[in-house]
Automatic annotation (TrEMBL):
GO terms for cellular component: plasma membrane. It comes from Tenacibaculum skagerrakense. It is found in: Cell membrane. Keywords: Cell membrane, Membrane, Transmembrane, Transmembrane helix. This is Integral membrane protein. InterPro entries: DUF3817_TM. It is a multi-pass membrane protein. Residues 3-88 form the DUF3817 domain. The chain crosses the membrane at residues 7-26, 38-58, 70-88. The keyword Transmembrane helix applies. The keyword Transmembrane helix applies. The lineage of its organism: Bacteria, Pseudomonadati, Bacteroidota, Flavobacteriia, Flavobacteriales.
Length: 93
């Protein structure tokens, strides 16, 4: 499950960056909401998957409440999910 979480966290981060720095400026500068519509739903699904997977990894990863909160808060910051690897421990130790 840890590998799935790493993939989802990377994809969630990429979708968030695309949404914030490409789709949203196009929407407001060129009055074209198409890209926001295309990226909005996948980003939302990836965000929900990220939070659910983080919740299910909370106990196996032995995260404290503070660590779990940080992992969740990283999903709200641009580029934040790319740094979530710091909080992942090897599940076989």
């Amino acid at each position: 499950m840890i590998n799935l979480f790493k993939i989802v966290s990377f994809l969630e981060g990429v979708s968030y960056i695309l949404l914030l720095f490409i789709a949203t400026p196009i929407k407001y500068m060129y009055d074209n909401p198409t890209y926001v519509k295309w990226l909005g739903m996948p980003h939302g699904l990836l965000f929900v998957a990220y939070i659910i997977l983080a919740y299910f990894l909370w106990e196996p990863q032995k995260w404290s409440t503070k660590e779990f909160s940080i992992v969740c808060l990283l999903s709200l910051l641009p580029f934040g999910t790319f740094f979530v690897g710091k909080y992942l421990r090897n599940e076989y130790t």
